[in-house]
Amino acid sequence: ELETRLDISSRDEVGSLAESINDLAAHLQRYRDSQQEFFANISHELRTPITYLEGYAKVLKNRLYETDEERDQYLGIIEQESLRLQRLVNDLFELAKMEEGRFELNPDLLEFEEIVEQAVHKMEWRAKQKGLELKLDCHGPLPRLRGDGLRMEQIVINLLDNAISYTEEGSIIVTVDTRESRLLFAVEDTGVGIPENELSLIFERFYRVEKSRSRKFGGTGLGLSIVKKLVELQGGEIYVISTPGTGSRFEVTFPFPSPVEETGGTPR
Ligand code: ADP
């Protein structure tokens, strides 16, 4: 709680200054609360895999298993939790860099369709494993896009990865098109969907609709907040439309570069 609320009720400049200071104080308080919550979340998220690692390492060390299969199962959990920890630390670093503005993009002129094609190709085996159809619907040729190729790929892979994780049967349709003179990239699935009142929350750090489901798929709850930041840092926007039990559609749009940029002139 901040105790520095100024109690000045005059209607002149001093009064309005006091009001601004109070607004600022309230803003700082909210910021402090959200930072505190963030750190509480981080420690919880880090502690969970560490607890598993410690527990199963002990079980193995003291040979508290009966069969080789049982032992292999525990080793599998240790491997899985180590990977989760690795992902978590990577994601946290990325987010921290983005938030502090220490994040470097290497902009280039990109053939976005190619990036999507390659990403779809990379994710095909995962879709196949789950018996899902993964289809690419590309309405090219499109103008080139200005952005960081690796980061664009990260955006695409992340959305595909989620679509596959949260879909049990049916298909995932990826579209690349133009819409209102912007590039449109969409990933539509026939998965579990997201309740309407949670749609805006899923882009927040650590937010998950269903914690256990996300955990099962190795999710950190940071993927979409990173995607959103990467999209916005490159001038884009991201939306989601979803119906629980029917599926979700994530849409990303980017502006095309102006003709000056396209011909290699000085960027803004
Ligand atoms: P996670 O690592 O948990 O997948 P994300 O930040 O990528 O974290 O996503 C946040 C939450 O949004 C997920 O836990 C899940 O509940 C929900 N979500 C994301 N993508 C989808 C999707 N395609 N279908 C249904 N729910 C989704």
From TrEMBL:
Location in the cell: Cell membrane
EC number in record: 2.7.13.3
Main subcellular localisation: membrane
Domain of life: Bacteria
Enzyme class: transferase
Record's bilayer topology term: Multi-pass membrane protein
Catalysis performed (reactions): ATP + protein L-histidine = ADP + protein N-phospho-L-histidine
Domain HAMP: residue ranges: 1-33
Domain Histidine kinase: 41-258
Keyword Transit peptide assigned: no
Keywords: ATP-binding, Cell membrane, Kinase, Membrane, Nucleotide-binding, Phosphoprotein, Transferase, Transmembrane, Transmembrane helix, Two-component regulatory system
Protein's recorded name: histidine kinase
